[in-house]
Amino acid sequence: MTTHRLSRPLQRRAFLAGTAIAASGLPAWAAAQTQITFSGWAFEPQVTEADVKLFMQQNPDISVGYTPLDMQSYNQKMIALFVAGSQPDSFYVRDTDLGAWVEAGWVDPIDGMSGLDALNADMFPYIRQAMSYGGKQYGTPYYGDIFMYMFDKKAVASANVAKPPVTLDELKNAALEVKKAGTEYPILKGYKTDVDGLSEFWSMVLASGGHLFNAALDPVYPNEDTTALGVLEWLVDAMHTWKIMDPRGLQMDQTQARDAFLAGQGVFTSNVGNVLPRANNKAYSKRAGDIQITRFPALKDVGKGPMGWARMYGLSSKTSQKDASWRLISYMGGKDKSGAYYTAKDWYLRFGVGYSYMSLDHDPDIIAAQKAAGYDLEVRSQQYATAQMRENISSPWYSQWDRFTQEQIQNVLLQQTKPQAALEASAAKARALKKQS
Amino acid sequence: MKVSIEGQFQRPGPLAPEADALLVMHRRTWISRRTTPFAYLLNAPSILVIVLLVGYPICYSIWVSLHRYDLRRPRIFRLVWLQNYFDILADPDFWTALRITVVFTVIAVIIIVSVGLAVALLLNRRFPGCGFVRTVILIPWAIPPVVNGLMWQWIYDPKIGALNALLRWLGIIDHYQGWLAVPTYALGGLIVAHTWNEFALAAILFLGALQRVPAELYDAGRVDGCRSWQLFLHITLPWLAQALLIVLILETMLAVRAFDIIYVLTAGGPGTSTTTLTWATYLTTFENLDFGHGSAYAYIVTLITLGLSVIYFRILYGRGEFEA
Amino acid sequence: MRAARVQRRIHTVMLMGGGLLVTMYVLAPFSWLVLTSFMHESDVLSVPPRIGWDSFTIGNYLTFIHASGVEAVVGSRAAENTLPGIFNSLVAATATAALNLILGTLAGYSFARLRFPGRMPLLLMYLGSRMVPGIALIVPLYLTIRTFHLLDNLAALAITYLTLTLPFTIWLMKNYFQGIARSLEEAAMVDGCTWTQMLWKILIPVAAPGLAAAAIFAFMTAWNDYLFAVILTTTMASKTAPVVVAGFVTDVTTARTLMATGGVLAVLPPLLLALMCQRLIVQGLTSGGVKG
Fold first, then answer.
1. Residues C5, C11, C16, C17: is their CA dihedral positive or negative?
2. Disulfide-capable partner of A229 in A136, A222, B289, C172 (CB 3.0 to 4.6 Å)?
């Protein structure tokens, strides 16, 4: 793959034709084509459109009708489509929804499809796990990413902190130094309920070598495994005892916290992996060039990674064009005709959207981009290689439990309840949800 | 001849003499158009549209609310009658959400009605610039709630927000505050944003009603030596009764259903401090995919709105006098 | 005499003060959106925000109308779709308002002037149909619209919004008609008008302010809807402004200044419309129309 120049967006007229790409200037053999439909939430849909167009050039026997759906209400829209039975042949799926969607009978497993094993062999383990449910695989990766811990290396250096913190204790001491040097709240973190609101908590627990759930999806926190309790107590102390973490974070979601961090607020933060290239990009960031990553801080440094997640392309259980749809998603989430990970590389180079294949770590274009973004490459590959998936992600009640637990943590940070009680409530919720399902 | 024709709920039966006379007129003058068929003819398009479009959705969602229907367990679709409703009423989270909904709704409606009324009374007078103000008040109404939520998010922003900048400039605060990070402020922040977005509707409806108050009434009142508050109490308010009824019902409905603003500003938090019944309905239906309980939640919201509307109706319907 | 004039002047000043207060209440939050739309991204993110002539730009607006500008920014598809979205919104909202006026006038008249069995139940049925939250109706409504083959069609939006607004329009019109003297109608009858002529020539002109208020109410409700539009529309054949704007205000990669610009653009059309109708809403009734 040589170029990432985006082919010009399709004419709107063609787009207006609805399932439109198929209609734009097709030659005579169009009649013999297999028609398939494809939808996803509209994150930079012109890129997806271009990708789909390339697929149709490489696979002239298939015509793809691609419809981007509103990102904010993607689930609502898809649920309406599923209930009405008018879902597309393939579509984006969030790992947090996978269990529920599989249980609802909307997504088909892809095990045994041609070429899947080769893709799986090169995939980061956490991504493959995140796309699996009940021992079956349900998608090819749209992207996968991990939660990353970032800091302003200039501010840290000027506070005379010698090395980046990798344990929570070191983080506390470093933050106290930075606070002494004049930053009121060195740690800036968003705690408003959102899709990534629990990610830091998960990452700290997993990086500490702790667990929230056992293999049977029963909660092991807060008593059997006390890691979660330790992490949550540290967070409360950070906010209220040591006053190194900004209490105003309770009203910020990840995006707001990111924008504030990029505008120069705070010194330490955690966010999704693709924030780092943005943070070191002058067009978006006031502190471009100053941001570095560290291993996700944990109660103790056991060499484990943070939380990782995946978004995938899934196949509809109602599709009548399973083979053609599989060819599409094995291209979108895998390789093109020339054997390159075209879309994954394209997304990464354009938007820093995490790729899912280990061999791309050695791609010269990607390494150049990572150097330009200012990554500590050693830390980066260590974190991706050791990233873990959320232990109960493959339950149909994941997102319900996730949101409940975020509320509990907010209550703890508001000092309306104690860490122990909040985690007990969260564990009780998990048990109740498990019993229902 | 001044007759209050709206005094009672009208039942089929002997017609009032005035209406009877009119009926005769209808028969005589406008071909033999019978009142009842004519009335239903006039209503036919409206009935048709509403029944065709929302008839099925309403019946469907009531039916679903009586079933165990969780999309995550699609094979179970079982009639459970009112069990979903009992489940919800037994859930302490429901009562928390109900309390938050009531607080939000009551305060928001009071603010909207008072601000709307005050603005309408002001704009009913002539003064230099009143045309400009009449247009300006439409701005908040023209802002879609999604955009409104975003605008207020930036205003309340703890780091770069306009409110913090303003208050510090005025010397009211020393440090930037996280306005939505504190439960009570968060609910207050939602109320401010919601009422700002909605007050224009109340103002316009009140203004429309005020415009119809016949000037002669005020003249007569003044001749009788009424003071201005007496004029307001005895002439203006009765004329506003019907508009007030509409405003109350509409604004109660809109406040109970406030959704976009919560979605953008607080997502129901921090904790569950801004989780209203509507937000809970949304989460149950579209996040948890539990359509049975979600629909039951929705009909509890419906019953509450309906109950309040009936109370308003009892108090206000038929108040104010019309030329019959 | 002079005392009275002074008093009147004080009165006017007080009214103007009230007007100023209302204007500030409305404009203070809104001006922040407008200001943001004219700023550079980096100035918005400063603490405190940098406001001044040196940071003023109309570049954000050019992005929406200038094709090359559109392609240069992230979130470009949404920016490109904003103006077509506004056009769709205008069509849907105008159609909603027009349909409301027709249906609302007819039904409203029947409640204002005619006694018929089922009158109260019917009025309550209209209102009751509006009491169910949209969240519960959205999925079955999707099924209904699909049955009519109207998915992704502006007509579907217009009739959906019609059902949302009609109950209140009918009620508003009922109240307006009840405020109009019956003698007007009787006079028309005596003059030999048909009912339709009477409605068209006598009642509607007199009720114009009420009609305008109802139309604006219907228009704004349609204009502001997000929930129904997002489910019932799919492509730019019918996506409305709130859907497009929400699409990129919630896009994590879009700049704040662009979001603000999209927001301001989405407010302009109804505002212009309101400007045009303003006189109609507030104009007093012709003196013969109402008797106390």
1. positive
2. A222
C247/A70 CB distance under 8 A:
yes
CB distance C104–B214 less than 8 Å?
no
Tokens of B282: 């949304």
Taking the C-alpha atoms of residue C155 and residue A434, their distance in angstroms, rounded to an integer, is 44
Q: What is the pLDDT of residues C251-269, one digit of tens each?
A: 656 677 888 888 898 888 8
Could you give the 3-state DSSP secondary structure of residue C129? coil
The residue behind tokens 């770069």 is B160
Q: Which residues in chain B have their CB less than 8 angstroms from residue C25's CB? A: 115, 196
Nearest residue, CB atoms, B289 vs list A100, A251, A259: A100
- Is residue A32 predicted with pLDDT exceeding 80? no
pLDDT tens string A106-146: 999 999 999 999 999 999 988 999 999 989 999 999 999 99
The whole-model pTM stands at 0.90
With CA atoms as reference, report the closest residue to B164 among B150, B149, B153, B178.
Answer: B178
Q: Which of C140, C195, C266 sits opposite B60 (nearest CB)?
A: C140
| B127 CB within 8 Å of a chain C CB | yes
Judge if the upstream peptide bond of residue A165 is cis by omega within 30 degrees of 0: no
ipTM reported for the complex, 2 dp: 0.89
Q: Is A10 within 8 Å of A62 (Cβ atoms)?
A: no
Partnered with residue A148 across adjacent β-strands are A271
The burial of A188, by beta-carbon neighbours within 10 Å (0-12 exposed, 13-18 middle, 19 or more buried), is given as buried
A143 forms beta bridges with A311
| Residues 201 through 240 of chain B touching chain C, CB cutoff 8 Å | 201, 204-205, 207-209, 211-212, 214, 216-217
CA dihedral C151, C157, C163, C168 (to 10 degrees): 170
